[in-house]
Write a structure and sequence with these properties.
alpha+beta, Trna Endonuclease, Chain: A, domain 1, 4 helices, 8 strands, 36% helix, globular
Length: 148
């Protein structure tokens, strides 16, 4: 029963992290919605966690929160983000928030490290080296090409 409690706690924490990102994007002039059914396996269509846009740029996010130093992300989550973004015309980003850091880091999909099991490994070092802060993401006027 403790496992279930911890799982529920982590889900609630993840939802709160998503909501905080939604708020930050709105505060920076991007109309933003959190997609409640994303990640729940309740849809046969690809859905990111968050969709955002300002009339000039459209962004799609898979949001991950961790209290660990290393985060593993399922290949399926990233593929769905890419598929949705290609159809919608959005720039896809993996938004990562570490428990002990107040900032979000936004990673371009091509910068992710593939593991031997064909999933993705995200380290704090990777986020610091390759990740964009929210200010960098908002000010980034270069649209990420969707040529995969």
């Amino acid at each position: 029963m403790l496992f279930l409690f911890e799982g529920v706690f982590l889900i609630k924490k993840g939802i709160n992290v998503e909501r905080s990102l939604v708020k930050k994007l709105w505060e920076n002039g991007f109309a933003t919605i959190r997609v409640p059914a994303s990640g729940a396996g309740s849809s046969r269509y690809p859905m990111p966690d968050i969709i955002s846009g300002n009339g000039k740029r459209y962004l799609a996010f898979e949001v991950k929160y961790t209290s660990n130093k290393i985060l593993y992300v399922d290949k399926h989550d990233i593929n769905e983000l890419k598929d949705f973004s290609e159809i919608f015309g959005a720039e896809p980003y993996l938004a990562v928030k570490f428990n002990d850091d107040k900032k979000f880091y936004f990673l371009i999909i091509d910068d992710l490290i593939m593991t031997r099991s064909n999933n993705y490994k995200i380290t704090r070092e990777l986020t610091l080296e390759k990740g964009l802060t929210l200010d960098m993401l908002i000010k980034n006027s270069i649209k990420i090409p969707l040529n995969w």
